[in-house]
């Protein structure tokens, strides 16, 4: 193709209308993160540092590429990188690599973050390859996270789409992670690939009688996903889950993700309770709470395993861990 001209920089207020137009051109109205369609909201989120975009501008200021850092975890210094896309006629010109490099190498460092994590989709391997060049490593796989409807316009998915959890940590610290007995092999495999130092201890002990469960629940109605952040697991965990799952069933939620703290010595108790309810292994979430987390996940129908395409052997091994655990629980 003919080389297209563009420049890459952090978002400016005047880019907001162009960002909305870019997403409508590529996704129609189907993109789940509705913020990108509302210029005023985009500007406000940028001012609060809740959403920090990097854009590619063509001559004249037209927005032809976009990616953002945004807050989505319990750790306010761990940002998610995502929402990336490039105008079709500019694909193949190096924009995706340029905006992601600027995001990870310049913006991520300048804001003094603990780290950045991404969720490259698994209906193709393009963004998975990009994550490798950005020194981001796979530690988890999120099954059936995205609805097929998000990819109708580009026709790239035959069913719900899984994503990888990939992490790049900027400021390493020595942490202790308590590993549930049933996931010793899986967890040690994942940790062996990280550059951060960790002390791994087998999870032991019961949930203290004096503790009450504290969960933050975020429901995303369009993709029919609920994310449960277990800020503390207490003696009432089963009753709390009963009430939550009843509410989520009434809302036709298809995927439930549970984020557990590996800093809690009794985390293995919570894992066993979740497995009895159909939750299966998703992976490790470095610095998710400041301390590390573990992903457990529940899918209400048979997952779209056949629709998952992975690039690295490491990612394929993490998928195998997840699929084997799902089979163990459901068969």
Task: Explain what the structure shows.
With 331 residues, the protein is α+β, with helices and mostly antiparallel strands. It folds into 2 domains: 7-169, Gcn5-related N-acetyltransferase (GNAT) (Aminopeptidase); 175-330, Gcn5-related N-acetyltransferase (GNAT) (Aminopeptidase, 3-Layer(aba) Sandwich), CATH 3.40.630.30. The chain is 29% helix and 29% strand. It has 8 helices and 14 strands. It has helices spanning 16-27, 39-47, 95-110, 126-133, 184-192, 237-250, 267-276, 313-330, and strands spanning 7-10, 51-57, 63-71, 78-86, 115-118, 137-146, 161-169, 175-179, 198-202, 214-220, 225-232, 255-261, 280-285, 293-299. A 7-stranded mixed beta sheet has the order 1-2-3-4-5-7-6, sandwiched between helices. It has a 5-stranded mixed beta sheet with strand order 10-11-12-14-13. Helix 1 packs across helix 2. It is globular, with a radius of gyration of 20 Å. The mean pLDDT is 93.
Task: Spell out the key features of this protein.
Aminopeptidase; 8 helices; alpha+beta; seven-stranded mixed sheet; 2 domains; five-stranded mixed sheet
Fold topology:
Elements: E1 7-10, H1 16-27, H2 39-47, E2 51-57, E3 63-71, E4 78-86, H3 95-110, E5 115-118, H4 126-133, E6 137-146, E7 161-169, E8 175-179, H5 184-192, E9 198-202, E10 214-220, E11 225-232, H6 237-250, E12 255-261, H7 267-276, E13 280-285, E14 293-299, H8 313-330
């Amino acid at each position: 193709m003919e080389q297209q001209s563009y420049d890459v920089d952090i978002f400016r207020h005047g880019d907001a209308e162009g960002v909305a137009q870019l997403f409508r051109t590529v996704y129609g109205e189907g993109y789940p993160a509705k913020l990108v369609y509302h210029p005023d909201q985009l500007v406000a989120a940028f001012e609060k540092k809740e959403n920090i975009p990097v854009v590619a501008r063509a001559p004249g200021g037209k927005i032809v590429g976009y990616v953002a850092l945004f807050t989505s975890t319990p750790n306010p210094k761990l940002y998610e990188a995502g929402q990336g896309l490039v105008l079709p006629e500019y694909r193949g010109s190096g924009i995706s690599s340029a905006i992601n490099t600027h995001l990870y190498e310049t913006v991520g460092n300048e804001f003094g973050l603990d780290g950045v994590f991404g969720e490259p989709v698994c209906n193709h391997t393009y963004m998975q390859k990009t994550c490798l060049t950005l020194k981001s490593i796979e530690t988890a796989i999120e099954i059936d996270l995205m609805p097929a409807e998000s990819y109708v316009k580009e026709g790239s998915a035959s069913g719900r789409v899984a994503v990888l959890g990939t992490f790049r940590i900027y400021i390493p610290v020595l942490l202790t992670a308590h590993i549930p007995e049933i996931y010793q092999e899986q967890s040690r495999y994942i940790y062996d690939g990280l550059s951060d130092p960790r002390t791994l201890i087998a999870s032991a002990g019961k949930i203290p009688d004096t503790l009450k469960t504290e969960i933050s629940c975020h429901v995303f109605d369009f993709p029919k996903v609920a994310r449960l952040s277990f800020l503390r697991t207490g003696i009432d965990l089963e009753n709390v889950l009963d009430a939550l799952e009843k509410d989520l069933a009434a809302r036709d939620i298809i995927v439930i993700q549970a984020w557990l703290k590996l800093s809690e010595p009794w985390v293995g108790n919570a894992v066993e309770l979740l497995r009895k309810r159909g939750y299966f292994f998703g992976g490790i979430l470095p610095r998710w709470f400041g301390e590390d987390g573990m992903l457990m996940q529940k899918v209400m129908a048979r997952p779209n395993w056949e629709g998952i395409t992975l690039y690295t052997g490491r990612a394929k091994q993490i998928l195998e861990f997840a699929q084997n655990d799902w089979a163990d629980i459901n068969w």
